[in-house]
Structures are given as structure tokens and as C-alpha cells.
Amino acid sequence: MLEVATVSLLNGTVYGLLLFMLSSGLTLIFSMMGVLNIAHAGIFMLGAYFSYQIGYYLGFWPALVLAPLLCGLIGAAIERYGLRNVPNRKAHVPEILFTFGLLYVIEEIVVMLWGRNPLTNEVPAALDFTAFTVHGVAFPAYKVFMMAISVGIFVALYLALKRTRIGLIIQAALTHPQMVSALGHNVPAVYVLVFAIGSALAGLAGVIGGFTWLTAPNLAFTVGFIVFVLVVMGGLGSLAGAFIASMIIGLAQTAAVAVNYSTLDLLQTLGLAVTEGTLLHEVVSITLAELAPVVPYLLLVLMLIVRPRGLFGTRDT
User: Fold this and answer.
1) What φ, ψ does residue 119 adopt, rounded to 5°?
2) pTM
3) DSSP letter, residue 128
4) What is the pLDDT of residues 225-280, one digit of tens each?
5) Fewest C-beta in 10 Å: which of 7, 57, 98, 157?
6) Left, alpha or beta for 121 (phi > 0: left; psi -120 to 50: alpha)?
7) How far apart are CA 108 and CA 27, in angstroms?
8) Contact 49, 110 (CB under 8 A)
9) H-run or E-run covering 207
């Protein structure tokens, strides 16, 4: 049991950090600009496809740099030539409709360029070895690499926003754009920069996440919903909240898969006879592993009941 718990804890930590890497860009954009970017998951998917294509010709390490840069440029173009021209953005509905439609456009572009069949994003040879073993179970080096990048993103974003001049300007531009502009700063350029950084983080998550999730045209919708669950649970715009929510969901889902028991097993352990003809037999036979995909949404419902604004949110969702 100790072996299962230890391995599950490690895998849950890796998965949680990967989720944070994916949600960090969206959290940054919302916290700085107040924009609910539905297309964020599409940019993440582009990062995975760019990584595959660039890696095919140049290798993984150039792809690790170039794919996020391309996603950042796409994000900057979306803000400059798309979102900036959306009317009545303060109501959020127009920007949601625009970015939701953009998500479908990105998916269709991916299908036209790479087809509908999934691609194989292989782990690079430099990271394809065992970093260490836990109770006889090998822990791959690429997962350690993934964890290091995720933690590095959290530390870098926190320090950049709280300890640097550009971070203070970015935060001030959201709440007092006229004052920031009067001080000589280019507020529209700040918005473009924030959107580019958030999109680049999504692209970086796509490069790393391509090892974990299947690189296919439905990738954006596969992970898109869970990203918004993370952002809402952590509190809209809270970087620390997104980090903690990611770890909670990562550990909870991994534990649900590892502890493959059902209510039926518990009843039988207590000595209660349950047969196929018993009322609700099918319901009590559902295992935790089968419920794992819905664990994030159950946690979200619980959070909305207990604390609607999220873990560290300052506004109700």
C-alpha cells in the first residue's frame, strides 16, 4: 500500500504541475487584462503541433524554444488585430464569443495542415532514461524535467509580477490605464505583451504536454474544460490559486485511478450481501477509476457551493 501511495503521489504531482503549466498563461491573461480567453486551449494545441513539426526537422531543443515563440506571436496578433476590435469587451460576452469561435478556427487549421489522425510526439533521447526508482518503479527523466519547468514558471511569474518594474506597470495598466498612459507608458503595447506571454506559456505547455496527451485535433477540447475548472477553483486571476487547484486535481485524479475500489467492495467488506438483482447494483459497482475523469468537475461543484469565488479569488464567479 505504501508503494502505491508513493508512486501515486509522484504521478499526481507531475500531472498537477503539468495542469498548472497549462493554466498559468490563462490565469496571467485574466488577472492582468480581465479577458476570458477560450482560445487558450487552441494555442496550447498549436504548441504541441509546432513542437512535433519543428522537432521533426530540427530536434526537440529548438522546438522547446521556437514553438512557444510562435504561439506568443500568434497570441500577440490575436490581441492586436482581434480582441482590440471587439466591441463592448467589458461585458465579457463579446470576447467569449470571439475567442470561442477562434478556437474552432484553430482546430480547422490544424486539421487542414496535419490531418485528423493523431501524431506521435516522442520523448527526446536526451530525456528518455530513468531518473530514479521508487519501490522498484522507474521514474522517467522527462517527468522530472516537466516538474522543473512547471516550478520554474511559477517562481518566474511570481517574481516578475511582484518584484519587477514591468510587472508593476502591467498590473497598474489593468486598473488605471489612463494614469499609466499619462506616465508615458504604451498601454496597448502592454496588453499585447501580456497576451503574448500568456500564449507563449500555453505553447510551452503544449511542447511538454505532447508527451502526456495524444497530439490530435481534439486536444484543445480534451484539456480545455479542465483548464477553466482550475482557474475557477483557484480564483479568477489568482496565480497561487491556480497552482494549488492544479495540485489538488492532479493528486485527486491520480489517487482515484490508483485506488480502484467501488462502493460495492466496501459493502462486501462490511459483510453485506449485494447481488446483481439488488437495487442500484450498477451504481454501487462503479469504481473510483471510472469516476476519475469527472473528479475535477465534482471538486468544482463543491468549491462553488462552499466558496464561489475560489480559493484565492477576490470576485464571485
Assistant:
1) -110, 155
2) 0.87
3) -
4) 888 888 889 887 788 888 999 999 999 888 887 777 776 666 667 666 666 666 56
5) 57
6) beta
7) 26
8) yes
9) helix 187-209
Under 8 Å between Cβ of 109 and 45: no
Amino acid occupying residue 34: G
Closest to 303 measured CA to CA, from 266, 248, 224: 248
Distances (CA, A) of 127 to 61, 143, 177, 191: 11, 9, 45, 36
What does DSSP say about strands 130-134 and 137-140: parallel, antiparallel, or unpaired? antiparallel
Give helix 165-175 / helix 141-163 axis angle, nearest 10°. 70
Q: Are the beta carbons of 254 and 244 closer than 8 angstroms?
A: no
SS3 at position 19: helix
Radius of gyration of the chain (CA): 21
In 3D space, the residue among 244, 255, 245 whose CA is nearest the CA of residue 291 turns out to be 255
**Domain residue limits, the chain:** 2-257
β partners of residue 262:
287
Helix axes 165-175, 2-33, angle to 10 degrees: 60
d(CA 300, CA 298): 5
